[in-house]
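Troubleshooting log. The previous structure file for this entry was overwritten by mistake, so regenerating from the original sequence record. Sequence copied from the archived sheet and checked twice against the printout by T.R.
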Amino acid sequence: MQKSQNGWPASKDQAEIGIKMFIIPGTETKIRCQKQAGKILAAFAGEFNAQVERIEGGVFDDWSYAYRDVRGSDSDLSNHSSGTALDLNATKHPLGKEGTFTKVQVKKINELCEKYGIKWGGNYKGRKDEMHFEITETLDEVKARINKLGL
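Regenerated output below.
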């Protein structure tokens, strides 16, 4: 089976990799994620909504599962392809643009990422992707974090 950048199984067949619908707490926004990763990503997004900025839920603004390559690649599957990545308020934080969050927001985003074991595209060394959040842990590590957080 194919794998996304973070090593999780990726497929065009959503059922094959356990894609499930989640509602982000405090919003009406729905995301499709891998069934374990989605618990983490939805909880993270709920806290992002409450503590960083409101999730707007507009068309093409917030998404998760999408079987595709990393932008600019034709051979490297995005973590969205495994349902282990999430983009939030994309129209406010477009790919490649830096400084779309305040210093206070950046501090809170990094705290939440640490809590949930998530990597933020705003911390990428190359092209920044401030809308983007992805799982960095293995399935077993995610399950342990879910138990630790009581999700």
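The chain has one domain: 14-149. Archived copy saved in two places this time.
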